[in-house]
């Protein structure tokens, strides 16, 4: 029996439509699905512990070899709702920002927005687990994923990074893409795309299996998150990677 392809996916609600097909048994004989937070999945891919990962695009240049293998991604075109800077004070009063340890792309995106769009230079501090409690006074926090939904109910100011990128560049944004660290067969890639599409075509079914009381998931999946990695998304991804290179 051929060895299964190890696939790492993110544990957030935004990935649920993409991995629903796998969870329903599609490709069960050829894929082992591993779930964790974005930075962890990226590390597993870089260490060759998985073959494919839904990884933050910021890590792609760090891979020895990489191939974007799917027509699907986690992106946005304007507001994304789940990647935000949260604060008790207006932008220009922020002195410190605690950074979410679970993402690399969002941290790089924030650095670009701070410099090029908001034109402020607060102190950036690495966050640890439960860093949300550090958001108070002039200390803001970058929070991504499901935890951002609950933070939306408590913070006075919410600065959406997807919207800020759109204001800065006029383009959509790609947070994560399906990336392999080796060449894969065309028939595997075709089946992989079919499995991704399965949940996107059954959003009501996906939503009914999830428990999220802090945000309307139908609105999230249809108005905020963009899943199709089209040519415009590809161009936006390339622009982001150029900006990272220029600021590093």
Q: What do you see in this structure?
A:
The chain has 248 residues and is α/β, with parallel strands linked by helices. It folds into two domains: 5-76 and 173-230, 3-Layer(aba) Sandwich (D-Maltodextrin-Binding Protein, domain 2), CATH 3.40.190; 83-169, D-Maltodextrin-Binding Protein, domain 2 (3-Layer(aba) Sandwich). The protein has nine helices and eleven strands. The strands form two sheets. A six-stranded mixed beta sheet has the order 2-1-3-10-4-11, sandwiched between helices. Strands 7-6-8-5-9 form a five-stranded mixed beta sheet. Helix 1 (16-23) crosses helix 6 and helix 3 (105-118) packs across helix 5 (161-169). The relative contact order is 0.22.
Annotate the secondary structure layout:
Elements: E1 5-10, H1 16-23, E2 31-36, H2 38-46, E3 52-56, E4 67-76, E5 83-87, E6 96-99, H3 105-118, E7 123-126, E8 139-144, H4 146-151, E9 157-160, H5 161-169, E10 173-180, H6 186-200, H7 203-208, H8 217-224, E11 225-228, H9 231-247
Parallel strand pairs: 1-2, 1-3, 6-7, 6-8
Antiparallel strand pairs: 3-10, 4-10, 4-11, 5-8, 5-9
Outline the biggest β-sheet.
6 strands, mixed
Give the topology string: H per helix, E per strand: EHEHEEEEHEEHEHEHHHEH
Overall form: globular
Number of strands: 11
CATH domain topology of the largest domain: D-Maltodextrin-Binding Protein, domain 2
Calculate the terminal CA-CA distance, rounded to whole Å: 45 Å
CATH homologous superfamily designation of the largest domain: Periplasmic binding protein-like II
CATH classification, class level of the largest domain: Alpha Beta
Number of domains: 2
What is the beta-strand fraction?
25-35%
Structural class: alpha/beta
- Contiguous runs where pLDDT drops below 50 for at least 5 residues: none
What would CATH call the architecture of the largest domain? 3-Layer(aba) Sandwich
Spatial order of the strands in the main sheet?
A: 2-1-3-10-4-11
Count of helical stretches: 9
Q: pLDDT average, as an integer?
A: 93
Rg computed from alpha carbons, rounded to a whole number of angstroms: 18 Å
Helix percentage: 25-40%
């Amino acid at each position: 029996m051929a060895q299964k392809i190890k696939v790492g996916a993110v544990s957030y609600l935004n990935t649920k439509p993409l991995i629903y097909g796998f969870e329903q048994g599609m490709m069960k004989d050829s894929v082992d699905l591993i779930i964790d937070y974005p930075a962890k999945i990226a590390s597993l891919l870089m260490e060759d512990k998985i073959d494919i990962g839904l990884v933050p695009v910021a890590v792609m240049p760090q891979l020895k070899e990489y191939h974007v293998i799917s027509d699907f991604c986690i992106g946005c075109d304007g507001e994304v709702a789940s990647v935000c800077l949260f604060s008790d004070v207006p932008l220009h009063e922020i002195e410190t920002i605690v950074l979410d340890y679970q993402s690399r792309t969002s941290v790089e995106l924030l650095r670009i927005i701070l410099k090029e769009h908001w034109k402020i230079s607060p102190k950036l501090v690495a966050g640890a687990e439960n860093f949300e409690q550090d958001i108070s006074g002039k200390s803001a926090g970058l929070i991504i994923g499901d935890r951002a939904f609950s933070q939306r109910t408590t913070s006075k100011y919410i600065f959406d990074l997807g919207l800020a990128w759109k204001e800065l560049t006029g383009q959509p944004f790609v947070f994560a893409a399906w990336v392999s660290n080796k060449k894969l067969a065309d028939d595997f890639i075709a089946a992989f795309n079919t499995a991704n599409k399965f949940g996107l075509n059954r959003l009501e079914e996906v939503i009914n299996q999830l428990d999220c009381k802090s945000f309307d998931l139908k609105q999230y999946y249809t108005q905020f998150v963009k899943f199709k990695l089209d040519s415009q998304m590809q161009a936006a991804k390339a622009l982001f990677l150029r900006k990272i290179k220029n600021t590093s």
